[in-house]
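User: quick one - fold this with fe (ii) ion bound?
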Amino acid sequence: MLVLHLSDLHLSRYGETGTWSVAESEDRPGEVLHLWERWRIEGLRSLRKNRPAKLRLVDPEGVVHKVRSWPKRGDDKAVDRLLALAMERHETSAERLIESQPTPTELHALLRLDPANTNLRFLEMLAQVLKVEPELIVITGDITDNGFGYDLVRHYLARWIEQQRLLVVPGNHDTYEMIPRKGRKQRAAAKEESFRAFARDLGLTLGDEGAWLRRVEDVALVGLNSCKPPRTPLSASGKVSAAQLEWLESLGAEPELRTARLRIGLMHHHLLRMPFALGKRSPIEVGMRLRNAPDVMRACTTAGLDVLMHGHRHHGYVVQLPFHPMVVSSPSSTLGCKFARRDYAWVMDLDREHPHPVMHTFEGLRAGMKPGASLFNHRHNKLS
Ligand SMILES: [Fe+2]
Ligand SMILES: [Fe+2]
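Assistant: Sure. Structure tokens for the protein plus fe (ii) ion:
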């Protein structure tokens, strides 16, 4: 049974990633200067000087996409540029991509305009990795960038969903926001509900804390929810609750897990520090860690898990510590691997006596980009 490990898709309404703000939650109302397909170009006044200060592009759901300073005299292209961006976004919306799947030529053309567009890169990646014909697909969190985009997965991985062969755990982007902004709690609750609805569609029965257990043939898979938000703002760290760890340890005695030939755990946050980087120091990763990583590793080892798969870091690696589960870290399947700066996904043949992930590389549009150009110039490093 081949399993494909995907992670950190960061899908969104239009495939854009990054900081979000909702126009309605801001104090200053905007004056609509231009309207196209329910997209608005608004002018904002400076509160202090009471004169036009900024332009912003707002999508039909009220999310601000781009803010520009007020155009200088003679710069009549400013509005056109925002309008062009609205049209580009409209083309890459999840709805449009579901309505009609772009041909490879259309996809290539759209990616040339917006190489880091995660919705487009998701389609580009699937076209190549699904060739391995995985019998099981797992996604270890950050499926969405901000709680929107599950429909793309529902549509493009429908075959695996119907067979209950798509398994997922949530990531920090699917569940909470790092930046304290008005309405954050309500948005987090809505995100949580969207994730639970998605998990239900996959046939997963989540416990109160979001953990699940699933048996696929003679393999047992356990999903842990590591997305317990920290108290500190601007942190994307996580924690697996004590209740989940207790449950996990008790699972060791359950026949569903005990009688399995292979036991795999899935979670979003990483368990190991990263001391390996060729000739460099460890990467600085502020506010990223799993706050109770040693406890989680202990519980996973006690439960007899053989493999632990995770994402979050956007770095890919495989580490086998003696007498511990093998740790498999997936890069972002849409934005690539920060370490290798290549596109790949882990594929593992679970029928082998000692399964080990094999790198399935694929050529993204990046292959055709100029030397030095990379998606890492497109906000990659801000995401986790
Ligand atoms: Fe993450
Ligand atoms: Fe991520």
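One thing worth noting: The chain has two domains: 2-13+116-382, 21-91.
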